[in-house]
Amino acid sequence: MMNAIEFRKVTKRFGGFTANRDLSFSVKKGSIHGLIGENGAGKSTAMKVLFGIHPADSGEILIENRPVRIANPVHAMRLGIGMVHQHFMLAGPETVLDNIILGHEPGRMFVGRARAEAELTAIAKTYGLDFDRWDRPVSELSVGEQQRVEILKLLYQKSQVLILDEPTAVLTPQEVKDLFGNLVKLKEEGKTIILISHKLKEVLGYCDEITVIRRGETVGSRSASETDESELARMMVGREVSFTYQGDRKVFANAGDMKPVMRVERLSIASSTEPLRDVSFDLKPGEILGVAGVQGNGQSTLLRALSHPARHGRSWSGEYLLNGRSHSDSDPIALRNAGVGLVPEDRLTEGLLLNQDMTENFLLGQHEDPRYSKNGFLLRAKARAVTESKIKEFDIRPPHPTVWTGRMSGGNQQKLVIARALDPGPSVLYVAHPTRGVDVGAIEKIHDAIIQERNRGKAILLFSSELDELIDLCDRMLVFYNGMVRAQFTRSEFDPWAIGRVMGGGDR
Amino acid sequence: MKNSEKVRIPQSVRLFFRSLAGAAGGLALGLLICRVAGESPGKVLSVLVNSSFGSGYDFGMTLFYTAYFILAGLAVAIPFKSGLFNIGGEGQLTIGALAAAWAGVVGAGIQSHTLAILFATASAFVAGGLWGAIPGYLKARRGSHEVITTIMMNFIAAGVTSYFTLYSLKDPDSSQAETIPIPEAFQLKPFALFNGAPMGELIIALAVMTVVLHVIMRNSVWGYRLKATGENESAASTFGIPAPASWLSSMFVAGGIAGLTGLVEVLGNSHRFKIGFSADYGFVGIAVALVARGNILGILPSAFLFGVLQKGAGSLDLETDKVTRDLTYIIQGLIILGVASDGLWDWFAGFWRRRNA
Q1: DSSP β-ladder status, A316-322 and A325-326
Q2: What is the pLDDT at residue A244?
Q3: Does residue B24 fall inside a structural domain?
Q4: Beta-strand relationship, A32-36 and A192-197
Q5: Does residue B5 belong to the interface with chain A, where contact is any CB pair within 8 Å?
Q6: Least buried of A54, A381, A390, B252, by fewest C-beta within 10 Å?
Q7: What is the percent of chain A with per-residue pLDDT over 70, rounded to a whole number?
C-alpha cells in the first residue's frame, strides 16, 4: 500500500528548544492513523510542519512517495492536506455554505452559491455525511455539527489527507461515535486521516496504526490490533502508568447519614449565555460529587456562582449554605474562611499570575490569611517556606519557588493550583477540570491527591468534561442539561451510555 | 546553597544595568545627531554637564526639576502595577498645586510652620487624589478606558485651575495670571548649599517617600492586590481581589502623589499658583516611568536623568550655536527608545550565541 505521508528525520527547533528531533513515521494511504503523545511531546508541531505553518529545519516530508517542501498552509491545501483545528475556524454569524466555500468560491464574478450547494450535497451523499443545513448560521449548530462543517470544508477543498487535532474533546459520547462512524466512511472512500489525540481508548478503537511521540522523538509505530492501552501509555510516558485509581478507596460506612456540609437550594442564575435553572443538591463529607454535562449546559455558571456569589448580585436567586450558614452574597475571601478550596476551570486565565513566581501565586487568595500577612504586610518568607514544602509534597517541577508559573508545564501548574487550594485545610473543595491539558504522569498524582482528600473526609465537587475521569473518581454524579440537573447517578449506576444519553438531552 | 549553583545576579539589578546601557546608547545617538547638526558632541556634553552640575545653584536646580519628575513618574508607575496607564498626571499635578495655593489662602491664619505644611500637603494630596480617582471610578464602574478619561481630565483640570486663578483666588496686585501669595508659614526654605535654588528639604523627603512606597508596593497586602489585578484581572477576582478596588485605590494614590507637586511648585518655588507653571511635567512623567520600567525605586535615577536634561536644555539655547533645547527632547526620545528596545538585547545575545556556536 502506498504511503500518503512520510516523515523522514524531520527536525524542528524553536531557538534553543527542539520540538521535533529526527521524527520519522509513515501514514498509509486510505488509513486512519493515530498520533499520540503527552502535552508538549511535539504532536502539534509535527502537524504544523506538515500543514506548512512552520518550515522544518532538516529532514524531508514525502507526499505519496514524492519529496515536497511545504511552504505555507495554502500550499499544503493545494497538495491535498487539510486540517481541523482544535478550536474551529468558523465565522459564527455566517451561513454554513459561506463558511465552507470561503476562499474556494466556484464563480469568478459572482460567488456561485447554487453550484457550490449542489456540489456539497453530492459530497455529503458520497461520504455519507448526513447534512443539509447549508443556509443556517454556523452559530446555531451544535458543536458536533460544527465539526462536521469543518470536515465538509476539507472535502470541498478536495483534501486527500485530513488532520484532526483532538477532535473529541468537546463531544458527547454519542457524538464521538457519530464522528468515528463518519471517519470510517471517509476512509472507505479512500481518504487518509491523521488523528491527534491523547485518549488511548479512541485511537485503539478506530485507528489502523498508531505512532507514539515522546519529547519530540518517535518512540515507535504500532498496528492497533497488536497493541493495548498499557503498552501505548508506557511508550508515551516512558514508564508504567495505571489508568484507574489503584489506591485505597475507603468507604464511608455512614456517608448516607452524614450531615451535608454544603447545600444548594433552588439556585438560579440569570445569564444570557449559560443560565442556571432551579438547581438543588447537597454535598456530604467524604464524598466526591461529579458534575457532568456537555460544555455550556450550566456547569461553568454553577462553579462561578459557588466560588463567587457576591459577583452575581441580582441575577442570583436561591440559597447556598455551608455548614448551615447562608453564603448567598459571600466573596471568595469569605468562602475561603468558611472552609472552601477552589481549583478554577482554567488555570491560565483564572488560576495563575503567569509572570510571577510560585510563591506569589501560592499567596493568591491567601494574601489576607493571618498565616501569611500581618498588619497589612505580607509574611513572604513564611509563604516561601510553605511553598517550598508544597513543592516537595506535590513533586512540582522545577523545584524552585522562584520559577515563574508561566514557564512551568501544565501539569506542574495544576499541581501548584491544587496545592494552594488544599493549603488552608478546607472542608469543601470545588475542583474543575483538574487534569485538563495535564500530562499522563501528572494525572495520576492529581487523582491521587483528590481521592486522598476524600478519604480524609473532605466534601468534593468535581467538574470535568472527561466522563471517564468522573466515572473513575466520583461517588455520585449530577448530569447537567440546559442549566438544570437532568439526572443523578450513584456509583453503582454509572454507565457511560446512560450518562451520555442524559448529557445529550435524552432520558436515562 | 549547593556549590554547583552559579552566583545569580538578581533580575532587578540586571534590568537596572540594561536600562543604564540603553540610556547611554540613546545619549550616544543623540550626540551623534549633534555631530550631523554641525555641533561638536564634546561641546554639547560639556554644556549639559556644566549646566546641571557646574555650581551649587545649578545642581540645586537639577534637583528641583528632579523633584517634579519623581512625583510625575510615580503617578504613572503606581497605577501601572494595577494594569492602568495614567496619562492624567498633568491634570492631577495642576489640581494639587492649585489646592496647595488654596490652602495657603484659606489657612492664612495658621502660625505654626509644621501645621501649615501638613495642611497644604493634605490639601494637595487629597485634591490630586480625587482628581485621579475620577477616571479610576469610571473605569471600575463603567469600564471607560483610562487613557481616554485621564487625557480628558487634563483638559478639564486646565479649565478649572484657570477659573480659580482668574476669579476666586486672583492676586489683585498682580498683572499675571496667578493666585494670592501664600504666607511665610507655608513656605519651604531652600538649602543654603544651593545658593538660592528653590525647594530644599523636600528632595530628601521625596527620596524617602519613594523608598517607603517601594517597600509598600512590594510587601504590603495592598501592593499585592494591585499587582494581582494588573497581572491577571480575572484570576485576581476569582480569588477575592476585585479589580475595581485596585483601580480606584491606585488611581487615588497616584493622583495624590502627582498633587504633591503643589509642595514643590507652590510651597517651595513660586509661593503661589501660576497658570502654566508646568512644562508638561506630567507627560514627562510617563517617560520617567518607562525608563524606570515601572520600578518604583528606579524612578529616582530615572527622574534625576530627566532633571539633568531639563536643566541642561536652557543652556543649550544660550551656549551653543547650532543646537537648541529641542536637542534635549530628541535625546529624551532616544533614551526612551534605547531603554524600551529591550528585545534588542535578547536579539544580540542570540546573535552572539549563534556566532560562537
Answers
A1: antiparallel
A2: 62
A3: no
A4: parallel
A5: no
A6: A381
A7: 95
